[in-house]
Structures are given as C-alpha cells and as structure tokens.
Inverse folding.
C-alpha cells in the first residue's frame, strides 16, 4: 500500500477545517500549516511552520503538495501566485462525495467540496472554492479565484468572472454572466447579466 501524500496548508481557521476533513477523507496526510502567526486553537493538532514570507518554504515543503486553505478570494490569489513563484506542487482537492463530470476541467488549487455537482463540459479556473452542496450545471465557466458558497446553483452556460463571490443558496439562471469582483448576496436570484462589480442582492437581483 502506497504512503499517503502529504499536504502543507496555507491558512488555518474555519475554512481550513473543512479542507482538512476533505483531505483526510480523500486519503491525504496533513503535514502542517503556514500562517501569519500560530493559531490560538489547533483542533487537528497540526505543526506550525511559520509565516510563508519569513521562512524558507521551498526547503520545508520540498516536493510535497501545497494548498491554499483560506476563504478570502484575494488572499487565495496571492497564495497561488506565491506557489507559482516557487514552483510548488499544486493539485485539485476533490471531496470524495463530490460528483464531477468526466468532461469538466478544473484548475489547480481549487477545492471541490462535499456533495458538490459539476456537470458536463464545465470549466473551473484556478484557486476556486466550490463549497458544500453547490451545483455547477453544464457548460459553465468559472474564472480564477471565484467562491461559490454552500447551496448556490449555477444553471447551464453561466459565466462567472475572476474573484467573484456567489452567496449561499443563490441562483444564477441559464446563460447569464457575472462580472469579475461582484458579490452576489445569499438567496439572490440572478435573471439578468451582472456587468458591474459591487454588491448585488434580491429577487429579482438589484445593486445595493
């Protein structure tokens, strides 16, 4: 039996806990974490390796895997660029309960969470979070560093721009686009293209 692959996490708080449990369920071993400071709470008893800007990450990580365990889109973007600069080994984390089409494509450092559905011919960028129970229907395109919150539904042919946040239980109807940097509030129903960034909410959707 082969030894479990080790993963070094960057960030260690609420979202990281979800990542850790998906890693363990998928057969990985969590080697420890990097963060600005050592966490006050350490429920998974992980070793702390320091702040990535103050230690030699390349020497510590070696040829093991790395993963951005933070929910904030902009911080996740910085981390992925940092990984690229050091040529660290990135991967796609797929929770075993996720249902992913064989024709879907997914970029590195993306998290596909518990009970997520990704349907045929969808394209998911790098550093994306598809959170618990979210649905990405056929031929959707998600740019880099997007966050799809729990229970959100993207109907067919939806396009989501860089660093957008699609709130919990919101619905983006078929063939609609959401511009990069937009925040779609929880429970929102998007029935038209959202072409300005900022906060959008309601049914029908409107800008705050």
């Amino acid at each position: 039996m082969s030894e479990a692959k080790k993963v070094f996490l960057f960030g260690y708080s609420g979202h990281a806990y979800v990542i850790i449990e998906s890693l363990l369920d998928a057969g990985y071993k969590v080697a420890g974490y990097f963060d600005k400071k050592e966490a006050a709470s350490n429920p998974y008893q992980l070793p702390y390796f320091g702040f990535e800007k103050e230690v030699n990450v390349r020497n510590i990580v070696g040829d093991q895997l790395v993963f951005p365990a933070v929910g904030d889109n902009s911080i996740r973007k910085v981390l992925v660029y940092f990984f690229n600069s050091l040529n660290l080994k990135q991967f796609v984390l797929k929770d075993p309960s996720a249902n992913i089409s064989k024709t879907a494509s997914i970029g590195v450092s993306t998290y596909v969470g518990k009970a997520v559905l990704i349907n045929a011919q969808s394209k998911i960028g790098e550093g994306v979070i598809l959170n618990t129970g979210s649905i990405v229907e056929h031929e959707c395109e998600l740019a880099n560093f997007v966050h799809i919150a729990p229970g959100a539904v993207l109907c067919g042919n939806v396009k989501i721009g860089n660093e957008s946040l699609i709130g919990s239980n919101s619905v983006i109807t078929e063939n609609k686009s959401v511009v990069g940097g937009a925040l779609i509030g929880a429970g929102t129903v998007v029935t038209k293209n959202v072409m300005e960034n900022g906060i959008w909410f309601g049914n029908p959707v409107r800008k705050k």
